[in-house]
């Protein structure tokens, strides 16, 4: 209780310090401030902050906070920013962190491993809690699994190269234990566990339209199959079901020296339905509702939420309209609401 009272008092003093800095900066900008003994420069701010909070604040966070205030007094940073958010190797052990008089933040580890080259960007990032790893996909074709075992990251990368195709999204197939990604013209399935570096990738084609997003349909059964949802630039939503047999029986030979095994999309269990009149920006299966959602920049058919069986029939779907469409959506199970962003 005494520590809490001391912290509240320190916080009040810190907030007063920040207000004085803002007043000083505002007067300086208008030419009304005359320098004197009460001037707050960086050294004064640093010394006062360290006195108030002690080792709970780090030098670089103090510097960043000060610079943020001085650069824009109208956008005041939150007080908790003074304590930072990343725990680096030099910040001490977890036991030392727990002794902080401020609060306990979850330790975050920054991945320094370079998974993409210059002029490449990450287009998809998926957390797989069951296997404790993170999956990333870069625009130019680098799929990487970061395994968090033994408290350090191990990465396994797969490079897909096709001159004109960019990766637009990725996800994980929990039953088949494969990574799936979509490009503008194909579907990639990667067996990240395979020891064969040149023959562990499958490419499904042809796909007539440009694929823009992908997600896994999560189910509770243990059958050796997975279903994925995909959206394209013509407003179609696809449901593709893959089984272990698809990767054994339906292969056809690729060109020599190719590291990919090609699968004919016409031979697979895939259905599609046009739900929007513009690009499909996101598809997602919501297990709690046993429904899928898809959104588009289409102003009329902006958001669809319905049973996945609607993709296989022509029955009406539950949808609503938003001017200029919907770019993103998410579901909150606790509040039982769906939030959309246009």
TrEMBL record:
Gene3D superfamilies: YVTN repeat-like/Quinoprotein amine dehydrogenase. SUPFAM superfamilies: WD40 repeat-like. Coiled coil: none annotated. InterPro entries: WD-EF-hand_domain, WD40/YVTN_repeat-like_dom_sf, WD40_repeat_dom_sf. Keywords: Repeat. This is WDR64 protein. It comes from Climacteris rufus.
């Amino acid at each position: 209780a005494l520590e809490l009272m001391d912290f509240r008092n320190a916080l009040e003093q810190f907030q007063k310090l920040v207000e004085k800095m803002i007043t000083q900066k505002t007067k300086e900008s208008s030419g009304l401030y005359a320098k004197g003994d009460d001037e707050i420069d960086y050294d004064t701010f640093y010394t006062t902050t360290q006195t108030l909070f002690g080792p709970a604040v780090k030098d670089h966070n103090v510097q960043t906070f000060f610079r943020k205030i001085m650069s824009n007094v109208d956008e005041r940073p939150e007080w908790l920013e003074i304590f930072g958010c990343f725990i680096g190797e030099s910040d001490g052990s977890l036991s030392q962190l727990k002794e902080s008089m401020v609060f306990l933040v979850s330790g975050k580890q920054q991945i320094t491993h370079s998974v993409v080259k210059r002029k490449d960007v990450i287009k998809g990032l998926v957390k797989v809690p069951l296997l404790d790893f993170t999956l990333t996909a870069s625009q130019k074709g680098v799929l990487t699994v970061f395994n968090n075992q033994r408290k350090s990251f191990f990465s396994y990368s797969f490079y897909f190269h096709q001159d004109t195709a960019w990766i637009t999204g990725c996800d994980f197939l929990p039953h088949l234990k494969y990574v799936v990604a979509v490009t503008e013209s194909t579907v990639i399935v990667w067996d990240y566990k395979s020891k064969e570096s040149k023959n562990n990738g499958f490419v499904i084609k042809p796909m007539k339209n440009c694929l823009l997003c992908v997600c896994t349909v999560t189910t509770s059964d243990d059958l050796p199959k997975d279903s994925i949802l995909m959206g394209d630039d013509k407003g179609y939503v696809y449901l593709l079901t893959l089984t272990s047999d698809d990767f054994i029986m339906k292969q056809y030979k690729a060109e020599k020296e190719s590291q990919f095994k090609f699968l004919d999309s016409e031979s697979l269990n895939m259905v599609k339905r046009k739900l929007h009149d513009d690009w499909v920006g996101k598809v997602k299966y919501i297990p709690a509702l046993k429904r899928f959602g898809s959104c588009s920049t289409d102003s009329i058919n902006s958001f669809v939420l319905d049973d996945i069986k609607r993709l296989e029939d022509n029955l009406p779907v539950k949808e609503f309209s938003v001017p200029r469409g919907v770019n993103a959506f998410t579901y909150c199970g606790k509040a039982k609401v769906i939030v959309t962003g246009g």
